[in-house]
Amino acid sequence: MREHYHHYIFDGVQLTLPVTPQRYSWGWGKNIETINVSALGDVYFPGNKTRCANKVEGFFPAQDYPFLAPGAVTDPWYYVGLFQQWAQSDIVGRFIVDGTDVNAAVLIESIDVEEKDGSGDVYYVINQREWIDVEAEAVATINPATDTQNKKQPQDSTAAQTYTVRSGDCLSVICRRFYGDGTAKYYNALAKFNGIQNPHLIYPGTELTLPPADQLLGG
Length: 219
Fold this sequence. Notes:
219 residues, Elongation Factor Tu (Ef-tu), domain 3, Membrane-bound Lytic Murein Transglycosylase D, Chain A, flat
C-alpha cells in the first residue's frame, strides 16, 4: 500500500512529517442559509463555501524507527520548533497529503505537545485553518458576460508578465488572479510553460513568466 506522506511548505521550507499522523481530517462544504417564508416555513439556500478548520495528531520521533519517512530527523524538537515558529507568525503555507485531494493554503493556529511514554518521542496536536486569497476569489467571481471593465484580460496583451511567488501561493490561485480561471487546464499549462514538474509544489521567491492566455494554452 502506498504511503500517504503529509507535507507542509512554509516560507521556502518543505517539511514531510516523519511519521504518518495517527489522525487527521479535512472537509469540504458550504454554508446553508435559512429563510423563513410565510405559509412555507423554512426554505434553504446554498451559501458560500466553508473553510476547513482541522487537527493533525501524531508524534515526532526521538528514535530511528523503521517506518520513518525518507529524510526524517530523529530530533522531535526540531519539528516542534518549526511549527512553533509558524504558529507565532502570519506566514501562510500549504498542507498536502500525497495521493489525495488535500492540497490547501493554511495558517497554523497552534501546536500542543506532550511526552508520555519515556521514549523521548513528542506527541503533538496541530490546529490549522484553511486560508483564502480574497483577491483571487474576487477575480474568480466576476461574470465575464457582464463585466468588461475589471475582468483580467492578459490575452489582449502581446507581452508576457512576470510574478514572484509569495508564501501561500499556488498555481491555481495565480491563474485565477491573472487569467480569471484557476482550473487544471490553466495551472497545468502554466506549470509546463515554466518548467515546473509538480504543479502543486511551488516555492516563495520563484519567478514565474505569465504569457498571454492564447499563448499559454497554445491557441
